[in-house]
Amino acid sequence: MPGGPGSGPGATTGTGAKPDRPPKPPAPGSGSTPSAPGTPKPGGGGGGGTTSPPPPAKPTPPPTPAALKLSAPQRAPADKRWCEKVTVEFRNTGGTPARSGTITFATHIIGALGVDWATIRSSQPLPAPIAAGATRSQTYTVCLESWRVPLGMRVETQDVSAVWE
Q1: What SS3 string covers the chain?
Q2: Distance between CA atoms of 157 and 142, rounded to whole angstroms?
Q3: pLDDT tens per residue, range 30-57
Q4: pTM of the predicted model, to two decimals?
């Protein structure tokens, strides 16, 4: 029907038909964004609202692996001369928990005159899990074989190290 309603320039003649000209962009500050003909608008397309999609979220970087920092060993005597109680503080400065691991003690055998006769290494499990950003303290009893520490000698755990997952 020529000259009927909706037959002027730029008018469409039904759903899905293309306009003669591209749609005009909205006035600045109107808060809506143009959409291509035939595509639903964000928010369900039911009409009425002029909501725009949320801005894309910045991707969060992957968490950093666990990173344990160990304090210097705090020593205390035990009930036997070839043993001592060693307290260590574990601080996880990483972004994920330390799920498992071992701590290694370097225990020195010291003679009566202060001579360092030997260093014996021993290992025990970490107090896992240690959450990201958490600090945990653990006291271990570190013992050597009694025959390694003759009468008049003592043990000193001077160094600690750890490996973890």
Answers
A1: CCCCCCCCCCCCCCCCCCCCCCCCCCCCCCCCCCCCCCCCCCCCCCCCCCCCCCCCCCCCCCCCCCCEEECCCEEEECCCCCEEEEEEEEEECCCCCECCEEEEEEEEEECCCCCEEEEEEEEEECCCCECCCCEEEEEEEEECCHHHCCCCCEEEEEEEEEEEC
A2: 8
A3: 555 555 555 555 555 555 556 777 777 7
A4: 0.63
